[in-house]
Write a structure and sequence with these properties.
The chain is an all-alpha fold. It is built from 18 helices and two strands. A two-stranded parallel sheet has the order 1-2. The N terminus is likely disordered.
């Protein structure tokens, strides 16, 4: 059973606020197709599903040890409905503590089937998602439950560095599944419906597809604008209405989902902004990491997300101010695209004023203006802020030089 763990106190500038609307739209949508995917820790699971019904009922003690390890107490618990003992003696307590330490040790699962056939599966760094997918393939169903009172409360990332590091790992795991034999359209036999398979296909391929699309829309129209090359239909063309309709309908759909999930217009702006940032960084790096692993060049890394409270970060978070203290490998693509859009917008406006080509270039001007509007926190962090969470001047300089080189080449 999957239960929503989204709390009502979601900041309008949350860097992870996008998951609120995802949980309120995607998971209920999958509920009628066989159940939502497993994500995070907000769910209960039957032991029979996690360990395997056949193993618990039809396998001898020796084979159980091969699968689950040498702990007699744990193996005994698989076939019993054990009730907690109300009172343990000193000797029993010491024995139980030693057994628990043995089970919790990192070496316990060696030479067993943990992570391969039983328990959470290790074939992907998104072990929750991958385990839920294989359980759905075996015929298990999940149920979405979202009562008014939250069932799980916890902490989430409150700064850009942690959310991008965490996201890189997630998106690498999803792309890793898409490039493996476990891709939903070819993995079988499966008890899933075609529609549920398509849901899993969406999650598997969207990091790579979205990152590629974002890099295109954040650079190609702007470079064409800077060079005076019209890319979209002119305002006088009937096709211009089609382009405007597609753009506005996409924004309206997303805004509706955010408002339906209890969000606000400002929260929607934050989701749009983080969608752009993640597409240029964590989605791109995660997809590239998975591709390198599939080619045998690299290995997908697992970096634990920092959940330690930093007083200055929390203060900025409570004030709705972004903290841009992260590595240049994440900051440079973000800042470079902001500078590229700014230069293209200024150059484009100057060009259309001198040539009078408003009719042909209006769509590209509007796109650059929209991206700059959504990028106001980055512009503020580059030019106005003086606190420790600002974007360093060195990063701005590196990004400006990179953009100058690109503009000079094209």
């Amino acid at each position: 059973m999957h239960l929503s763990d989204i709390t009502a106190d979601v900041k309008s500038v949350d860097i992870d606020a996008e998951f609120a609307s995802h949980f309120q739209t995607m998971l209920p949508g999958m509920d009628g197709l066989g159940g939502p995917l497993l994500c995070g820790t907000g769910f209960y699971m039957k032991r029979k599903a996690l360990y395997g019904t056949r193993l618990i009922k039809d396998v001898g003690l020796k084979e159980l040890r091969t699968f689950f390890g040498p702990s007699n107490e744990f193996i005994k618990s698989l076939r019993q409905n054990l009730k907690p003992e109300s009172c343990l003696g000193r000797e029993q307590l010491d024995s139980h503590l030693k057994e628990l330490q043995f089970l919790a040790s990192c070496i316990y699962e060696q030479s067993t089937k943990w992570g391969e056939e039983v328990g959470f599966l290790y074939h992907s760094v998104v072990e929750d998602y991958f385990t839920g997918f294989t359980l759905h393939c075996k015929g298990w169903i999940s149920v979405y439950c979202d009562p008014e009172r939250p069932q799980f409360l916890g902490t989430t990332t409150t700064n850009l560095n942690d959310v991008l590091v965490q996201g890189t790992r997630w998106y690498a795991g999803l792309t890793e599944v898409a490039l493996s034999k476990y891709f939903p359209l070819i993995y079988g036999p499966s008890s899933m419906s075609v529609l549920l398979k398509m849901c899993y296909v969406f999650f598997d391929v969207w990091p790579l597809c979205l990152s590629c699309a974002m890099w295109f829309f954040a650079s190609v129209p702007q470079l064409c604008l800077f060079k005076g090359i019209p890319l979209y239909p002119a305002m006088s063309s009937p096709l211009f209405v089609v382009v405007v309709f597609i753009f506005l309908s996409s924004l309206s759909k997303h805004m509706y989902e955010v408002l339906m999930a209890g969000g606000s217009i400002r929260g929607w702006c934050s989701e749009q902004r983080m969608w752009m940032i993640k597409s240029l960084t964590s989605l791109s790096y995660g997809s590239f990491d998975a591709i390198m692993k599939s080619l045998g060049v690299g290995q997908t890394s697992f970096i634990a997300t920092n959940k330690v409270v930093d007083e200055q970060q929390i203060q900025r978070y409570q004030m709705g101010i972004y903290d841009f203290r992260t590595a240049n490998v994440y900051l440079v693509p973000i800042v470079s695209m902001v500078i590229l859009n700014f230069a293209s917008f200024i150059g484009g406006v100057a060009r259309v004023i001198t040539t009078g080509s408003w009719d042909k270039m209006s769509a590209q001007l509007f796109l650059s203006a929209y991206i700059l509007l959504m990028s106001f926190p980055e512009i503020e962090a580059m030019m106005l802020r003086k606190d420790s969470g600002r974007i360093p001047s060195s990063t701005t300089l590196i990004s400006a030089v990179s953009c100058s080189v690109v503009l000079a080449i094209v």
